[in-house]
Specification:
It contains eight helices and no strands. The chain is an all-alpha fold.
Length: 192
C-alpha cells in the first residue's frame, strides 16, 4: 500500500466539506411534530396508514461521530509515523502535491497496530466496516426496504469515488468489504 494513497485520502477528508455530516432530511425527522389545534378528547377512526419509515437521526449522528473518530485515529497513526521520520502531515501533503515520491519506514509497533485494525475482528476489518455501512444505510432510510436499491446504487457510486480519490485500484480488503456490503443489501432485501 502506498503512503501517497493514504495521504491522498486523508487530504480529501481534511476538507470540512468532505467530512460526513447529518443529511438535512434526517435532521428534519428529528424535530418534534406540532401539536394539533383540535381537542384530543374525541374518538377518531381512520383507515390504518401504511408503515411510515423515518430516518433514525440519533443513530445517523452516532455513526457519523464514530466515522469521524475512526478517521482521526487513522490520521494520528499516520501523523506519528511521519513525525518519527522528522516530517509533519502538512509537509507530506506538500511533497505529494509537488510531485515528489514519499517513502516511509514503518516501525514494527505501527505495522502490528495496522494489521490488528484491518484484521478479521478489527475496526477497519471487513466485518465491522461492512456492518457500519449497512447500519448507516438502514438508519438513513429508516429501515425502508423500498430504498434498498437506491442505497445500494449510492454505495456503489461512493466506492467508485473512493477509487478515484485513492488514485486507482484500492487495497484488496476494500473489495472484500464491497462484496460483504452488497451481500448485506441482498440479505436485507430477501428478508423484507
Amino acid at each position: 500500500m502506498e503512503v501517497k494513497n493514504v495521504l491522498n485520502a486523508l487530504a480529501y477528508l481534511d476538507k470540512p466539506e468532505n467530512r460526513p455530516s447529518m443529511p438535512a432530511y434526517a435532521q428534519a425527522a428529528e424535530e418534534p411534530a406540532e401539536e394539533s389545534p383540535v381537542a384530543n378528547d374525541a374518538a377518531v377512526y381512520e383507515r390504518s396508514a401504511p408503515e411510515k419509515y423515518t430516518p433514525d437521526a440519533k443513530r445517523i449522528q452516532e455513526l457519523i461521530d464514530e466515522a469521524n473518530r475512526g478517521t482521526e485515529l487513522l490520521r494520528q497513526l499516520v501523523e506519528k509515523l511521519l513525525l518519527k521520520q522528522g516530517m509533519t502531515l502538512r509537509q507530506a501533503f506538500g511533497m505529494l502535491d509537488s510531485g515528489h515520491n514519499l517513502t516511509l519506514e514503518v516501525d514494527e509497533a505501527t505495522r502490528l497496530r495496522a494489521a490488528e485494525e484491518i484484521g478479521e475482528d478489527g475496526y477497519y476489518g471487513v466485518k465491522q466496516t461492512s456492518q457500519r455501512i449497512l447500519d448507516f444505510a438502514k438508519a438513513l432510510s429508516g429501515g425502508d426496504p423500498e430504498k434498498i436499491e437506491m442505497l445500494r446504487d449510492a454505495f456503489i457510486k461512493g466506492f467508485q469515488m473512493a477509487e478515484e480519490i485513492w488514485g486507482g485500484k484500492l487495497p484488496e480488503i476494500s473489495y472484500e468489504t464491497y462484496d460483504a456490503v452488497i451481500k448485506g443489501f441482498d440479505e436485507w432485501k430477501a428478508s423484507s
